[in-house]
Amino acid sequence: MDNLWIVFMTGLTAGGLSCLAVQGGLLTSSLAYQVESDLTARGIKPENHANPRFALPIILFLSAKLAAYSLLGALLGALGSVFQLTPLMRAILLFVIGIFMVGNALRMLNIHPVFRYFSFEPPAFLSRYIRRKARNTTGWFTPLFLGTLTIFIPCGITQSMMALAISSGDPVAGAAILFSFTLGASPVFFAVAYFAAQLGSRLERWFIRIVAIVLLVLGILSIDSGLNLAGSPISLSRLARLIAPQSPAAAFNPQPLFPQDPFQPALPATEDPAPIPTQGANSLVLAALNNGYSPEELIAPANQAIMLSVITKNTLSCSRAFVIPSLQVEEFLPQTGTVVIQIPPQESGTVIQFTCSMGMYTGEIRFQ
Amino acid sequence: MIIQRIFHVNDMECSACAMRLEGLEDILPGVTQIKASYHRQRLEIIFDDTVLSEEQFLQAVESLGYHAQAQ
Question: Which domains does chain A have, with CATH numbers?
Fold first, then answer.
């Protein structure tokens, strides 16, 4: 999985704060209560936070959480391999997750009481069971048990990562996604649990607002990705292209699409025996780069079949998963190489959108 | 006598607040059940008023940082 680093960073930034908002309230306080009572029973002052034994139960809690989520990721990946999601299904999933995240952000910002319904309330029996277990058990069992139980109260961003694990369609990739995300979320969670006693309500509210804003941005991006992946003519990315259009690369333009080398020069070239195709009257060339597609706008002649050559060169990002939603084209491009896609004749004025499988990188072909 | 009271708590900020308030049933004597809903900002308690008074319950709610008003 090429994007595990991004997943890890999502966990480290937004995920940690989001987990804090959802799981922190009950689990961190239960854990802190447990830790403090354990330490008090042993005659160690709870305010002695430098004592390494204070950190141990939190580490156990986070380790159990990490193991539980990795296992969950493997299960979701296996589920995804049985029910392979189509681009449209992924688009709907991204859209719904985006709405959920935006709704949660608006709830946290107290915009309107109706947004409270975006918060998942665990069934009373489950919260009662968790609470009583937290109080009645001692030793190593409690943090391990509570860490495992966090899979039942995933935060909004965790839920999107769970959806990503399903869409990977592979148990190992699914486990790796949730492992990376949970690992990334751990430092913030650890810090907050560790300093829970000092974290006053004012600071907590400040944290909640940051979480809400991060969630809002990620939610809007998720909705936008869903729209892109569904081939919607309306999306933020397309709006941005309208506001700041690139100079389109016309099929009739004798200039090559790649000014010099559009690929990252720092990466060493691997095997690339095939010559880069040139652009002709009914052939287009598109570069799938690590940071998107180049050019983002192509011009093609109408009423003619077109050969679209999509070229990769040491491309590692999700731009390799190339999708043309309206033509039901989905190609997983090699790290380095060329894939030719036949596009049937289109009427003048038709615009065909293309995107990566996550709806992050987009572009379009205009027929004239 | 076992009685039921319903309160409005408009300062619950998330589901964890509801769970926190429900946790009072493990601490307070005479409580049969506490149900809290963040969605409806509602707190429902079934308790024995010969063991626990309503005022004591409201004080316990306030000690957690919330304000309950009888419905």
Answer: 4-229 (no CATH), 248-367 (2.60.40.420)
